[in-house]
Amino acid sequence: MKWEDNVRKVVPYVAGEQPKNKNVIKLNTNECPYPPAPGVTGLAQEMDYSDLRLYPDTNATPLVDVLAEYYHVKPAQVFVGVGSDDVLATAFQTFFNSGKPILFPDVTYSFYDVWADLYKIPYKTCPLKEDWHIDPEDYKQPNGGVIFPNPNAPTGLLEDLDTVEEILQANRDVVVIVDEAYIDFGGISSLSLLDKYDNLLIVQTFSKSRSMAGLRIGFCIGNEKMIQYLNDVKFSINSYTMNRTSQVLGVEAVRDDAYFKEITGKIVATRERVKKELTELGFVFPDSKANFIFASHKTVPAKEIFEALRAQNIYVRHWNKPRIDNSLRITIGTDEEMDTMLEFLREYLKER
Ligand code: PMP
Description:
Blueprint: E1 25-26, H1 38-46, H2 61-70, E2 78-81, H3 83-95, E3 102-105, H4 112-118, E4 123-126, E5 146-149, H5 161-169, E6 176-179, E7 200-205, E8 218-222, H6 224-234, H7 244-255, H8 257-280, E9 283-284, E10 292-297, H9 302-311, E11 314-315, E12 328-331, H10 335-350
Parallel strand pairs: 1-11, 3-4, 5-6, 6-7
Antiparallel strand pairs: 2-8, 7-8, 9-10, 10-12
Helix pairs in contact: 1-7, 2-7, 3-6
The site of 4'-deoxy-4'-aminopyridoxal-5'-phosphate has 12 residues, from helix 3.
């Protein structure tokens, strides 16, 4: 078919599986195992859905305002989108237009190279060090922009603010995006660097620490001018990105700070306990500060453990990719879910 010559051909991102079966222990897509804040679920039940006949607020003003207040920035420094994937995709389109390669780690969120290909942005990956940390020296070469998650995914490793700042110092003429999808599980945000660096964009999400992956809410914070440029691109594609329900429930989630701290605290406590138990079972892993652990076993191949867990309806994530094919990314679930997994692994590994 001739028309196929003109198709924009892409190799899409592959999201983790969402099984239909409810009996699965789902530790494969870094969702939160706890429900959203009680205010969110309460409000969802009381909402007046007759308003759904109307378009939503194009600027999601109440949500932007509550985020600005929470993070002590101006509303003009906040941009919201349909999950942080939407925010990140818009940022790629908006800021990475120099024709020079953008830089990101070789082992990282596997959507970055997909957006780069989609928008025809050249890119170069920088190998993580042997200990899985970023080497800031790699980011001191000419480039068209920089992006990395902090903590990184799927390693879970956090870079300290000195490392982030070293990368910013070396890249004053391009936009540096720090993807903080997992920052709320014990990491230190780069927000304090915003006053010093007008080229820093920090992206966060409600999908993990706020337990709202299903509503699709993401946001970023940066210099006012940057946010204006993002809005120009957004309003050139689709003015009504975030639906009414997400806007209303998102505000409620930010208001309930006590619940947010409670669930993130619980996940951190479970993570630290699971680290000890996995070590006893012969697993090794970088010291995660995220809501997952990136573990490989000293003797048993990851693929085999992945399949054995799957046969028990315990889903974790495994990639057939260089450098990471002998590791499993295990999302931190409830204590009970983790105990079921650990109990199975104890027996399974004994027999190996
Ligand atoms: N950044 C990273 C590093 C992620 O792992 C994810 C989750 N897949 C996202 C961004 C996107 O999350 P969401 O679109 O749900 O906000």
